[in-house]
């Protein structure tokens, strides 16, 4: 069908827009499906610019989702972290992700209002013009410009310190893993920034720190306690890209339990560690085949 062909040309972009706005793989998948249902059957000559039209439709869907999501997250047990995108050959790999969707940055976006987040993502990440964003959030183009400006200032002020050197990032992650698994406290203190932050998202379903752990000594001790519960006979560690940057996935051989680690690295040291343990946020991963 012609409408399916046209839709498939933009599917990857639509999924990326949805994931950036919602921070949820499940919501992004649902939003893409809903957008397809709305697109299906439209007369071919009714839409002059399918890309712009579909971007507006999926952005509206996700903007509406943000309102209800904020209510749910206010009662969430412990820190709320986005659902991770792990490069393991699943359908989520259809999008190339970069620093704009790192878990630490997505966590900063959670502090914006739905309108600010939508305006910032659409304009600064996807280059959508302000008049088109205005249709999504129901504001004037000038108001949307101000929303994006406020969001941009906050993101710049609160975004994590990070390196753009992929190999530097990978070396830091490898050093962290060696130190943790080897019980090397001095090695951990060396690779962790003095002001490192550890966030754990268990959602009240698995044991996890309900408040961020701050400082290299506390984080090092916390990581060592976690390692003592690791049994190589039943658990495996996989080096995988997590939201576009080198990370780690720890999972049992049957894929029933897992934790995904995302890292921010600056000047050779780890500045932030995000650990996602909530099984609801990992069910989109094909854990046995990682």
Explain what you see.
Keywords: Sigma factor, Transcription, Transcription regulation. Pfam families: Sigma70_r2, Sigma70_r4_2, SnoaL_2. This is RNA polymerase sigma-70 factor. This protein has a 6-stranded mixed sheet with strand order 2-1-6-5-4-3. The chain has 11 helices and 6 strands. Helix 2 packs across helix 3 (25-39) and helix 4 runs antiparallel to helix 6. The relative contact order is 0.14. It folds into 2 domains: 4-158, PhyR, sigma-like (SL) domain (Butyryl-CoA Dehydrogenase, subunit A, domain 3), CATH 1.20.140.160; 166-281, Nuclear Transport Factor 2, Chain: A (Roll), CATH 3.10.450. With 290 residues, the chain is of the alpha+beta class. 48% of the residues lie in helices and 16% in strands.
Short overview:
Interacts transiently with the RNA polymerase catalytic core formed by RpoA, RpoB, RpoC and RpoZ (2 alpha, 1 beta, 1 beta' and 1 omega subunit) to form the RNA polymerase holoenzyme that can initiate transcription. This protein has 290 residues and is α+β, with helices and mostly antiparallel strands. It has two domains: 155 residues, Butyryl-CoA Dehydrogenase, subunit A, domain 3 (Up-down Bundle), CATH 1.20.140.160; 116 residues, Nuclear Transport Factor 2, Chain: A.
